[in-house]
Each structure stands twice: as structure tokens, then as C-alpha cells.
Design brief:
The chain has about 110 residues and is mostly helical. It has one domain. The chain has five helices and no strands.
Length: about 110
């Protein structure tokens, strides 16, 4: 089935992985913030910083691929690239799932 260029995306299998990866990245980010705020955890802060940095780049790539495959709206990528990072992607995913923002209406009926 050929998709039209301006047709709204329909969440698929990759969107499920985007959601899982977003929550994992959010947990890593929360750990980074906790270790950064607590004194005496320089090594843990560095490790969680590296994990968050690499994980965030990977999350952005996975979301970008999902956007190209029309399984996620580009607004999800925009929400992820905000200064709050994985918090933005989780909020974007919740808005997509609960309100249907940016996706085809038929996707909500079949889900």
C-alpha cells in the first residue's frame, strides 16, 4: 500500500519500541539528576552522564526512523529535542496515545 506524503502517521511496531526506549532513557536521566544533586557521586554522575548522552542520541535516531516510516509524528521528535529531553518524549507519547495528537484517526480505532 503506497502512503501519501502528507498522510498522518499510524503507530506500528517501531512506535512500541520508541515508547519503551523513552521510558528507559527517562529512568537513566532521573538517575543522572539524582547523582548530580547528591554530593560524593562523581563516578556515578559520569557513568550516568555517558549513558544518558549515548542513550539520548540513540533515542533521537529511533524516533527519527519511526517518523520516516510514518509510525510517529515529527512533533514527537520535536518534543524529544526540547531541553528536557526524554521527559519531552514521554509527554509526547502520552499525548499521542491519550489524545491522538498527530496520528491518523483510524489508528486509535484499531489500537
Amino acid at each position: 500500500m503506497a502512503r501519501k506524503p502528507f498522510e498522518k502517521p499510524v503507530p506500528g511496531e517501531l512506535f512500541v519500541w520508541v515508547k519503551r526506549f523513552s521510558f528507559v532513557e527517562l529512568a537513566i536521566f532521573a538517575g543522572l539528576i539524582a547523582f548530580w544533586l547528591l554530593p560524593g557521586f562523581e563516578t556515578e554522575t559520569m557513568l550516568f552522564g555517558w549513558a544518558h548522552g549515548l542513550g539520548f542520541v540513540a533515542l533521537c535516531v529511533v524516533i527519527w526512523v519511526a517518523c520516516i516510516r510514518k509510525e510517529a509524528p515529527y512533533t514527537l521528535l520535536a518534543a524529544t529535542l526540547t531541553p528536557v529531553g526524554p521527559v519531552g518524549s514521554v509527554i509526547g507519547i502520552e499525548l499521542i496515545e491519550r489524545k491522538g495528537w498527530g496520528i491518523a484517526p483510524k489508528a486509535l480505532d484499531s489500537a
